[in-house]
Amino acid sequence: MPTFTLPALPDLSPATPVLWRGRVWTGVEDAALEDGAVLTRGGRIEAVGPAGRLTVPDDTVTVQTGGTILPGLIDLHVHARPGYLPWFVAAGVTTMRDACNSLETVAALLTPAGLAPRVLPSGPLLDGPATVFRKFGSGAVHEPGDGQERSAGALIVRTPAQAERAVAFLADQGVTHLKLYETLAPDVYAAATRAAARLDLPVMTDLGLLTTRGRAAQVDARQALALGVRSVEHASGFALAATRAGLDPAGDLPTALLDELAALTVAAGAALVPTLSVFAPLTTDTLPDQRDLPLAGQGGPLRESLDGQWRAVHAGTRPIRALARADGRLAAQLAVRIARLGGRVGAGTDTPAGAFTLPGGSLHAELERLVRAGLTPTQALRAATGTAADILGRADLGRAQPGAVADLLVVAGDPTADVRATRDVRLVVQGGRPLTPATLRAALEA
User: Fold this and answer.
1) Domain tally for the chain?
2) Of all helices (H) and strands (E), which one includes residue 95?
3) Which stretches make up the Amidohydrolase-related domain (predicted)?
């Protein structure tokens, strides 16, 4: 059985049995296995355990990683474009949940020309006639049945019957989940959730924030949770719930209310995807320091375009810095309470819609922000691995366990002790195929 060390690897096919040795964290347990190993073959994980106790085939190739092996990361809130799909994989993000794209864009995301993460699409979101998407031009907004649904970023539904038809249409297009947005009327929102439940289609929801249209939304987080949504994005709708309780969400909310809202989320079986990285850059006039994030130095026309977009958003939101601080504070307070109650907190970035949310790299910043909010390093890591997979309903992802997809990330250091260790990416394994830093750089350049 030949043995190799990083980065000197042969060209290994996914069919080759490979024993990856190092510190192993499975994405589920609290503690890492110090002298562990993961056996992969055929794109799947066959065995995990102490390195000296695993029985392996005679033709196994052993790789001494010299680092920590953990599941490939999952970003639960992305608005991707085909051009920067390789950025995610290069940063160790092997799966992403699309949080709104036209079906035309989804088709391109699902048929990438090169390196790309696994994409779980929502397609266009459902919203009411007052949708903010009208700001993006007439082509961004269409109604079910108008013949142009595939180009829409938002499908406008005015009645419960329209909502049911829209959900059925999206399900027929193969979306893996449904996104419900800010200005849906309560009866329309409820009809959409019922239709999604009949089709076993999970619902993610953005109900607006103090920094967006949250004060004008018709459905708050309490109502959405009662209707069975799978995840609440950005901690949206909770500020509206506080307002309806007679409180000012721009100030410090009572501990009793925060505890109640967190407990309500856990009892509903829903997850919170707080996207702390969306709020942080908007709280200050100072541009964020991203120098140690994966791909922070990636240049080229695409990066220049993103930087221009981000700088415009950052400058344009200067008048709402205080509201961004309030939104971020509420999201962090709820996240830590939900985690302490044993509920689900997921990691998402809103990249690249949020200012300076670097595709792929910003997920590492999100993990650190979750820890700063009060989660433990392993809770934050699970938010992008095992817990994220649970939110997706995918037991075969986010875990270094037998039967799971062989998506792995090898990093230097121990991220269960210092979550910033995820930023030092030494190797990405995607479906059993090892991708060295040199391979990843070549994919980015291509």
Assistant:
1) 2
2) strand 93-98
3) 68-432
